[in-house]
Design brief:
Layout: E1 9-16, E2 23-26, E3 29-32, E4 37-45, E5 56-65, E6 70-78, E7 93-98, E8 103-104, E9 110-114, E10 117-118, E11 138-142, E12 145-152, E13 162-169, E14 175-183, E15 191-198, H1 203-206, E16 212-216, E17 219-222, E18 242-245, E19 252-257, E20 272-276, E21 281-288, E22 293-299, E23 305-312, H2 318-338
Length: 341
């Protein structure tokens, strides 16, 4: 471990194409193999961000084009030199920016908490970013696959934690697969994954009231709306019930909105879904509010590796997607467990 680092980290992104494909077609557009994963780097000055006012922020977009869907991961963090002098949390976030503006949150859809510290939100003082050197994701291409890599690492005084996240998309696939591995000087660190979702429509942004509903093999878990007074406009509260699910039985979740279903409302962006491996997770809690839905997965004691699958289904209706998950979840679970990331 390098001296003087307050944090570093490991973040690996992988996208697979077919083993021998030179190009693929999406509609009338031909995408060459080297474009299946694309990375774009931008920097901007932060405004209205409190401790980060006027700081330099680095934005990295990573696109995965499978031939069926395009997923866009957005990685943001402050790289300002001000962090050389202190251990300021620099606001690192990973969002899922495409294929829709709704569903998995574009700005901050996944957090990994190790002993209650969100590793992704931290940036090391003294890293090459702080010195102005290029440490944006580096990409590599091999036969049938491409990769972009990041590194995050926490210091010894914080259990020397290293988090490795791998995101993988398969050619002609419809999902984004994820594997997380934590190594730590502590024998059994607490690991939680917190996921943020806005099912089918950013309802508050569009000033439209929906009905959030999370469906599993065990049933539906809904928000408990508070109706406005007669003639009054609805005011979003961000409050709602928290449900405890059974990890052994309810290992896939459909995130939908009963009002904004593509089968009945054309402005709907469609449902999304999550799958995890039951043997890795001891507790699942889902908070269903009138706007976001927050899912917290707690890893079993001693478990340092977790596997997740994320979907966004576009304009497919809630009922169709539910049937798809019922029919395919078991095979997808086996696939993500067996696959090398």
């Amino acid at each position: 471990m390098l001296k003087g680092l307050s944090l570093a980290g490991v973040f690996v992104l992988l996208a697979l194409t077919s083993a021998h494909a030179e190009e693929m077609k999406i509609g009338d557009i031909v995408i060459k193999q080297e474009d299946v994963i694309k990375v774009e780097h931008k920097q901007e000055k932060l405004e209205g961000k409190g401790d980060h006012e006027g700081h330099e922020q680095q934005n990295d977009n990573i696109w995965f084009r499978t031939g069926k869907v395009t997923y866009n991961l957005l990685y943001q963090r402050c790289i300002d030199a001000a962090h050389l002098q202190d251990d300021t949390v620099a606001g690192g976030k990973i969002g899922l920016n495409e294929p829709t503006e709704a569903n998995w949150y574009w700005a901050d859809f996944i957090r990994v908490l190790v002993d209650d510290v969100n590793v992704i939100s931290r940036v090391a003082s003294g890293t090459t970013d702080m010195e102005g050197k290029q440490t944006s994701p580096t990409t590599r291409k091999e036969a049938g696959k491409a990769a972009a890599e990041f590194v995050f690492e926490m210091p010894i005084e914080e259990q020397g934690t290293i988090l490795k996240l791998s995101f993988l998309a398969l050619n002609e696939g419809d999902a984004l697969l994820c594997k997380g591995t934590v190594t730590s000087d502590k024998e059994a660190p607490s690991i939680k994954i917190v996921l943020n979702n806005f099912p089918s429509l950013m309802t508050e942004v569009h000033n439209k009231k929906g009905m959030r509903s999370i469906v599993t093999s065990g049933g539906a878990y809904k928000e408990k709306p508070v109706p406005p007074a007669d003639g009054a406009q609805y005011h979003f509260t961000g409050n709602g019930p928290t449900y405890d699910l059974s990890p052994a039985d309810e290992y896939w979740l459909l995130y939908s909105d009963e009002v904004f279903d593509p089968d009945t409302r054309p402005e709907s962006m469609g449902p999304s879904a999550l799958l995890f491996v039951p043997g890795e997770i001891s507790k699942v809690q889902v908070k269903v509010t009138d706007y976001p839905v927050t899912t917290t997965l707690t890893c079993k004691p001693g478990t340092k590796t977790f596997h997740l699958v994320f979907w966004e289904f576009g304009k497919r209706g809630n009922k169709e997607v539910l049937e798809y998950l019922k029919a395919n979840a078991e095979e997808v679970k086996k696939l993500v467990q067996a696959m090398e990331f």
